[in-house]
Amino acid sequence: MRLGVDGDALKPEYPVIEGHIIPEMNGEIDYDAGDLNRYELNYFALNRARILALFGAGIVDAKETLSRIFQLDSSRMDDDFGDDSKMEVTDDNVLSVIQATSEITAMLQEHASLEWLKPFVDWNGKATVKQTKNFGGYLKVAVGIMSDEPVRIISDEQLVFYASLADFLLNSDNGVGFS
């Protein structure tokens, strides 16, 4: 969520409907579009964003980035953004997800001392303007690099999603908070 100058979460802001086929709907609040001051993503998408930001910052190389993202996604056989796995739940599958997530968490903790990454790993509640813009900028760099690659492990849909997340962060003038 975006923060205000006082450090508190901004109130929800929904866009209005424009150009609707029913003229009476024009100007009404579009609740389906989502709150402009919040960005919804699940834990697995956040892990991908963290890994991509580290890649964009030059902290991890392309091989480790792709390996970690593949490890995260294949451990769950997930769809691009869902929390729901397509695999049957067994002890082995659950252990595979736990192991992959633990390894990625350990890798992120190795870099948690980076000032710009710290609030995105430690969940301390709020990221400053500088931390938010740095994270968003590095994420944007990673998306740009991956968009130019002829062979991708990340789908076009994911690249658009992470570019949008980067823009959200870069346009958060007072930092972001987590809830």
Report what the structure shows:
This protein is an all-alpha fold and 179 residues long. The protein has two domains: 38 residues, no CATH class; 137 residues, no CATH class. Strands 1-2 form a two-stranded antiparallel ribbon. α1 crosses α5 and α5 runs antiparallel to α6.
Secondary-structure blueprint:
Blueprint: H1 43-56, H2 62-74, H3 91-110, H4 118-122, E1 126-127, H5 129-147, H6 156-170, E2 176-177
Antiparallel strand pairs: 1-2
Helix pairs in contact: 1-2, 1-5, 5-6
Summarize the structure.
This protein is mainly alpha-helical.
Our Rg estimate from Cα atoms comes to 18 Å
Structural shape: globular
Strand content: under 5%
Largest sheet: 2 strands, antiparallel
Proportion of residues in helical segments: 40-55%
Task: Point out poorly predicted stretches.
Answer: none
Structural class: mainly alpha
* Order of helix and strand elements from N to C terminus: HHHHEHHE
Average pLDDT over all residues: 83
* Count of DSSP strands: 2
- Please report the number of helical segments: 6
The spatial strand order of the largest sheet comes to 1-2
Q: State the distance separating the first and last CA atoms.
A: 8 Å
**What is the number of domains?**
2
Keywords, separated by commas or semicolons:
two-stranded antiparallel sheet; 6 helices
